[in-house]
Amino acid sequence: MVPNGCRILDQLGFYEPFFNSTIPLEEVFDRDNNGKPLAPGSDFAQLQTARTGYQLSFGDRRALLQIMYDGIRDKKKIQLNKKLIDVIHSDDGVTANCGDGTTYKGDVLLGADGVYSKTREAVWDLAAKERPEVVRKDRQALTAEYQCLFGVCMMAKGVRIGDGEYGYDHGRSSLVVCCKEGRTYYFIFQKMDKAYRGTGFPHYSKEETEEFAKAHFDMKIRPGVNFEALWKNTIAANLVVLEEGTFDIWTHGRIALVGDSIHKMTPNVGYGGNTAIESAAALASTIKEMLDEGYPSESQIRERFLTYQNARQQRTNQMVRVSADVTRIQAMQKLKIMSHLIPYLGDTLADLQAEMVVGATAINYLPIPRRSVAKVNMPYNPTQGDGMKESKLKRFALALPFLFLCFSAAKLMAPDPMIPWATSILETNKLPWTDAPLPTTFYRLEWLDNALAPIVVFFSPVLLDISNISYQALLFLSDYGLILAIWLIESARRANTFTPAQLPLLFTLSSQFIGVGVISPLYYLLHYTLSPIEKFKAADMRLTRIAYTKSILPAVILTYQMPLYLSFFTPRFEDRVAWNFFWQLYPLWLSPVASHLFFRLFDDTTKHDRIHNVTRDLKTIRTTIGLLSAQSALFWVYTIVKSNFSFSTLAAEILPPLHSPQTAPDLVTFAGEFLRFDQAFLFGSTLLWLGYLFWDTKHAGMLSMGWGKILGYAVVSLVALGPAATVGLGFLWREEILATRRHWAAMTEDKARERNRELGYEWDESGKAVRVGKEKGGKTGGKK
C-alpha cells in the first residue's frame, strides 16, 4: 500500500487496522546481479511519509480484504461465486446473468472484474456498432513481455526486517521485502522469449512454477543470500504472466469499468492495486454526485461515466507507462546505463512516486483524514503530478523574450570592433594610455594566457580608469556577485536536480568570454522552462544543500570579490593586471571552493532536513543574499551622493549609452559602452526573470498581491536601492513565498477542515473525523 491508496483506506476507516498488521519500509536498496548495493540504502519511504502522512507498507492482500470485509455493515450485499456470463443492456436498465442461473437487474453495471474482464467484453460488444475501429484497437491493447513469480516465505538468514531489495540483472530482476515477524514477499521478474498481444496469454502449472523458481536459484538477493534460500522457506507462490495495457473504452451506456479491466500495469512500483482503489473512489464519487442532482436519465448516466473516464484516463495511462519503464530498466532492457547512474540519482525514486501520488483522487463525499493534511510536506493536489504536468513547450514559448534579449545582446556586444585594437596592443605589448608595460602572461600556460590576454586588454582602460569608466565598471561587477550567489543557490536547490541550473560553472565561464549580458538571458530561459512552480509541490523541493549554501557567501567573497577589488585598487598597474588575470577565471575557483573547500567546513544535514526541517536553509539564504544586497544598496546610495543628486551625472554613471558599442571609435569607448550594455542586459533579464517567477506564484494562488502594487514596490526599490538590491529583495521575497505558502488547489489542513465542515464532519482530538451536522445539500434526492 502506497499513499494514494492509503488515503482512501483511511477515509473508509481501514488504514489503521491494515497498518497495524504490517510494518513500514525502513530502507530500500538497489543491487546489482551480485547482490552488491549500487548505492547506499535509501530512506525514500520515510521521505514519502513526511510528504504524504502515510507509510509505504507491504502485507497480505487477503488480510486487507478481510479488514475491508469486516468493515462492511450489511454483509448480505456481498454475493460470492457469481460468475458473470452475459450482460443485457436496455433503455431502462442493465441485467447481469450469472453462471449459477441467478439474474440481477439494476440501473448501472460496474465491472471491477480484472484483466480478463467479462464486463469489458460486454462493453466491446455493445460499442462495436458505434466505434468498431476503437473496439478492434482495444481488443489488441493488452500485451505481455514479462512473467513474474510472486511468493510469500519466512525470513531467510541474511534478510533484514523492514528492508526492501531491488535486484537488477540482464533480462530479469527481483524485489524482496521483509515485513512483520519475518514474513517476506518476493517477486522474480523474467523477460519472456515471446511477446504476447490481445489473446493467448500463458497460464502456468505448479510444475512450471517450480521449474521457473529453480532456474533462478542463483539470483543474488543480498551478498551471501540467493533466491534458493527464499524458495526453501516459501509458504505460497504463483507464476503469472504480467499483462500490460491501457484501453480507450471505459464505458458504454449504463456500464462502466474500473481497475485492471481498464488499466493494467506491472507491479514493480506497486501502483496497480492502489490505482484501482483510486479509480473506484473516483467512480463512487461520480455516482454520488449524479444521484445528488436527482434520479438520472440514461443520457445523464452516459455523460457522467464519460466524465469519470476523462478525469482519470491521462493519469492512469501515465502510471502504466512509468510502471512499464521501471520493469524494463530493472531488467536492464531499457536505459542500461541506469544501474551506473543510481549512485547519483538521490531521491529520484521518491520524486517519481511523488509525481504519481500528489494528484491522487479521494472519495469526495467522505471527510479528508487529518493524517493526510496535518504537517505534511506535500499536500495532495488534483492539478499536479503525472498526466497533469505543465507543458515545457508552452513555457519555452512564453519565455521567448529571453531569447530575444540573448540575440540582441550578442549583436550589440559582438567583440569584432575590439579585435584589431587588441591585436595591435598585444603585438607591441604597449598600451596607448600609459608607459607601463602590459603583462600578457600569468598562468605560464601558453594556450590559457593567450585566451585571457585579449580580455585583459579589454579591461586595461578600466584598470587605468581612462575616461573615468573605472567606477561604473566596479559598480556593475560588484553587483554581479549577488547574481552569482543566486545562481549558486539555485544550483543547490533540490527542485533543480538534473537541469542546467545545476551547472553554474557552464554559464559563468562562458560569460567571461562572451559577456554575462548574452549568457544570463539564456540561463533564465532554461531555468523558467525547466523549473515550473509544480516542482515545488513538496516543501522539501525548495530546500537547498545546506552545507553548500553556507559556503556560497565566503566563496563569493574569497574567489570573486577579493580578486576583483584587488585588480581595481592595488597601487601598481602590473599588480592590478596580475589580479585581473586571476579574477578572469573566478568560475574555476568559485565552484571548487564552494563545493569542496568550504563545503567540508559545514555539517551537511540535508538528508535529515528534507524530512524533518525543510526550512533550515532559509536563515543562510537570507544572510547571504541580504548582505550582498546591502552592499549593492550602499554602492548605489554612494553613487547618488557622488553625483550630487544630478540626474544627468547619475545617468552617465549607471545608464547604458544611446549608441551601440559597435560604433565606438576606440577601445576605451568600446569597453565603457560594452560594460554598460552588459550591465543593462544582465539586470534587465534578471528583473524580467523575477517577473516570470512572480507570475508563476500568482498563477498558483501563492501570491494575491496585484501587479500594480508589485511593480510599484519594484520601482521604488530600483530608485532607492538600485537594480542589484532590488533583485536580491525580490529573490528573498519569492523564497519566503515558496517556503510558507501552498498552491491554490493543494489540500491543506485549513482547506480540508473547511471541506469536512461542509460535509458535516469535524476532527476530534485524536484526528478522527466525526459527524457533527447534516451534510450540505440535504438528503440525496430521487430513487436510488
TrEMBL record:
Cited InterPro entries: FAD-bd, FAD/NAD-bd_sf, FAD_mOase_fung
TM regions (residue ranges): 447-464, 471-489, 501-526, 547-569, 581-602, 623-641, 710-733
Named cofactor requirement(s): FAD
Gene3D superfamilies reported in the protein's UniProt record: FAD/NAD(P)-binding domain
Molecular function in Gene Ontology: FAD binding; monooxygenase activity
Pfam families attached to this UniProt entry: FAD_binding_3
Domain FAD-binding: 77-322
UniProt keyword terms in alphabetical order: FAD, Flavoprotein, Membrane, Oxidoreductase, Transmembrane, Transmembrane helix
Similarity-based family: Belongs to the paxM FAD-dependent monooxygenase family.
UniProt name for this protein: FAD-binding domain-containing protein
Source organism (scientific name): Immersiella caudata
Lineage: Eukaryota, Fungi, Dikarya, Ascomycota, Pezizomycotina
